[in-house]
Design brief:
- By secondary structure, this protein is an alpha/beta fold.
- It has 4 domains: 217 residues, 3-Layer(aba) Sandwich (L-fuculose-1-phosphate Aldolase), CATH 3.40.225; 165 residues, L-fuculose-1-phosphate Aldolase, CATH 3.40.225.10; 203 residues, NAD(P)-binding Rossmann-like Domain (Rossmann fold, 3-Layer(aba) Sandwich); 29 residues.
- Helices cover 43% and strands 14% of the residues.
- The chain has 25 helices and 18 strands.
- Strands 3-2-1-4-7-6-5 form a 7-stranded mixed beta sheet. It has a 7-stranded parallel beta sheet with strand order 14-13-12-15-16-17-18, with helices on both faces. It has a 4-stranded mixed beta sheet with strand order 8-11-10-9, with helices on both faces.
- Strand 10 and strand 11 form a beta hairpin.
- The longest helix has 26 residues.
């Protein structure tokens, strides 16, 4: 494992113990093989003067909700060290009581809650303590003779302790096992099936020791050729796979109780893992570490040619698992899987939102790797079902559920937007994304692939005048998010003003192709997925020229009128599937590509108006922007319009000709 310490970088953090703690915590966080998404924790013991001017030893320990990769000084909870040590001496304490006492020990009540392992950090008599969930060490412990292997790797320099739940009982275990221990004889502590601790009075030395011990474990895996067991394979999706994927998303979402995003992992490693002959067995033995269960549930769903059956079977078996282990006082969590192995076809990740799906995807990658290492050591072997259930339904986790933040309005929803690289389309992408949606952003402009540097927006080059391009783009988008709930068919262009007697056939043909036929093709391609969507909706970007055409705009007006008529028919045809189809008629939206400063100036001059007067030349005397249109698009897709279809809605500030 690479040691990321750099002397030049470290100099910027030398001004305090806590600053140095920030630096080495971030070093640990940079390696996914050590910690993932909030996993692991670090601490530093440092004196501080209290309100009375008296110096107290304070334990600054990673606070709840912070990630080591990006942690700042405010991310460490300051707790009185003497209090934490006294707590360790108590004979018993519930974790709820422990949480209360940890909060009470803090010198700053506004700081984040301390890690549940704060007492354990307090017991280790060194200034700096590092704790990771290192893949290599935990994978070795998840083998039939894992403890023996770890003893072979580390000798007596590392204290190896059996797994026990995090919290007070873990602190008590370490308290009892280390009485009279010569701490200077230890390089670290391994908690089987959980992780590795290192410690030192120097931040650098504690970090270096972590890297050294993990490297020894990785070297051991290489020595037994465990890395050679990492399977890789390819799979070329078939046309019917995409609809099966959407069906899987729908089934999982129904068990979850809300829309979920579903990512189809088709990389070589995921496909290789899904192609292992014994995958039914090894993917259903348990997680790398019980903490992962809080993100991924205990095991994967196993899918074959009928993936919905596999989703439903997982849900049934999860309810049975809960009944077997429930003490009669617990409330069952949703029975939807968080990831699935689709035999020979890769893996699926199910997440309530973009962030959650990303977390699960990363954990799944590391799980697949660790499981194959475990198989190389005689068979993947995790904790018992009852032990994993105990953590999944831990009282502290149950309490968190009651405090969980409300979901964003469009969490779990998938939106397709065409013409997404500029103007109204771009504004629609940004607006939906701000409300939690995943967005498939399509545009013929190649810049679309890199335009949105944000997770949850898939920019895809697409020419809506080509059926093949549309099909490819939709399939790519469905692979990323699992289905389609909303289609915002927006792409189009306004051709040069031409009277009918001067209109060339190719101008009319091109205009109809882009402003009418391309939209019909988008509806046609997306409809099978919309039928499997949640509160599915189609928004067609029409024009003021439909109710109030102008001279010289015959081709454009005809195309948009044809589109509106098709939208009305689609509303009738698709309503039986719960799909709503509504049309918007924007007018004079000046922050789009066709309205250059020169065009604006000339148009304003032709009306004898200034540019600002021209922009607000409507009944309400307001300017209409792309984001105004996008806000209305979002509103039409929301619950307030859930019983409206076939509507034509103007957004023009009030146009006397339309009215």
């Amino acid at each position: 494992m690479d040691n990321l310490w750099r002397d030049e970088e470290a100099k910027a953090f030398e001004h305090s113990d806590l600053a140095m703690r920030v630096y080495t915590s971030r070093l640990l966080g940079r390696s996914d093989d050590l910690v993932l998404h909030g996993g692991g924790n670090t601490s530093v013991k440092s004196p501080r003067a209290n309100i009375f001017g008296e110096e107290e030893d304070i334990l600054f320990v990673k606070g709840s909700g912070w990630d080591l990769k990006t942690i700042e000084e405010p991310g460490f909870s300051p707790a009185r060290l003497a209090v934490l040590k006294r707590l360790a001496g108590l004979p018993t304490m519930t974790d709820t009581e422990m949480t209360r006492e940890l909060k009470a020990s803090m010198t700053d009540p506004s700081a984040p809650s301390p890690s549940v392992e704060a007492i354990l950090h307090a017991l280790i008599p060194f200034k700096y303590v590092d704790h990771t969930h290192t893949d290599a060490v935990v994978a070795i412990s998840n083998s039939p003779d894992g403890e023996t292997r770890l003893e072979e790797i580390y000798g007596g320099s590392v204290l190896i302790l059996p797994y026990i739940m995090p919290g007070f009982v873990l602190a008590k275990q370490v308290f009892d096992k280390t009485r009279g221990l010569d701490w200077n004889s230890l390089e670290g502590i391994v908690l089987l099936h959980h992780g590795l601790f290192t410690f030192h009075d120097s931040a650098k030395d504690s970090y270096d020791k972590m890297i050294e011990l993990v490297t020894r474990a990785e070297d051991y895996l290489r020595s037994i050729n465990a890395f050679d067991h990492l399977e890789e394979a390819d799979y070329q999706p078939q046309p019917e796979d995409y609809l099966r994927l959407a069906q899987s998303r729908r089934a999982a979402s129904q068990h979850f109780g809300a829309p979920m995003l579903t990512t189809w992992k088709l990389d070589k490693s995921s496909v290789g893992f899904s192609s292992i002959n014994s995958i039914d067995s090894i993917a259903t033995r348990g997680p790398v570490t019980p903490d992962h269960t809080l993100q991924t549930k205990r095991i994967a769903a196993i899918l074959d040619d009928s993936p919905v059956d596999g989703i439903n079977q997982f849900a049934t078996e999860y309810l049975d698992y809960f009944k077997r282990n429930n003490n009669g006082e617990l409330k069952c969590l949703d029975p939807a899987p968080r990831y699935a192995v689709w035999k020979g076809r890769g893996m699926l990740v199910f997440g309530a939102n973009i962030k959650r799906a990303g977390v699960i995807s990363d954990i799944v990658d590391h799980t697949a790797k660790a499981v194959q290492w475990g198989e190389a050591m005689g068979g993947w072997k995790t904790l018992t079902e009852a032990e994993i259930f105990e953590l999944e339904y831990w009282e502290l986790e149950q309490a968190k559920l009651k405090l969980a933040a409300a979901s964003a309005e469009f969490d779990g929803k998938v939106i397709v937007v065409t013409g997404a690289a500029s103007g109204i389309g771009k504004a629609c992408v940004e607006t939906f994304a701000s409300k939690g949606a995943a967005v498939i952003a399509l545009d013929i402009n190649p810049d679309i692939a890199t335009l949105f540097d944000k997770p949850g927006i898939e920019g895809i080059v697409c020419d809506i005048t080509s059926d093949e391009s549309i099909q490819s783009a939709v399939e790519q988008g469905v692979t990323a998010f699992g289905g389609i709930d909303v289609l915002v068919s927006n792409a189009g262009s306004f051709p040069p003003s031409t009277n009918i007697e001067d209109m060339a056939g190719d101008l009319l043909e091109k205009t109809m192709q882009l402003n009418f036929l391309g939209h019909v093709a988008m509806i046609r391609t997306c409809t099978p997925f919309l039928k499997l969507g949640f509160d599915p909706s189609v928004i067609l970007m029409s024009s003021k020229n439909v109710p109030a055409p102008g001279p010289g705009a015959g081709a454009y007006s005809a195309a948009k009128s044809a589109l509106t008529q098709v939208g009305r028919v689609a509303a009738m045809e698709l309503g039986g599937y719960g799909i709503r189809v509504n049309m918007l008629h924007p007018n004079a939206v000046f922050d789009t590509g066709i309205w250059t400063e020169e065009v604006l100036r000339k148009r304003a001059e032709s009306y004898g108006l200034s540019i600002e007067e021209y922009k607000t030349n409507n009944i309400l005397k307001v300017e209409i922007t792309s984001h105004d249109v996008a806000a209305l698009v979002l509103t039409l897709c929301a619950q307030s319009f859930s019983k409206t279809t076939g509507a034509q809605v103007p957004i023009d500030g009030g146009n006397d000709r339309v009215i």
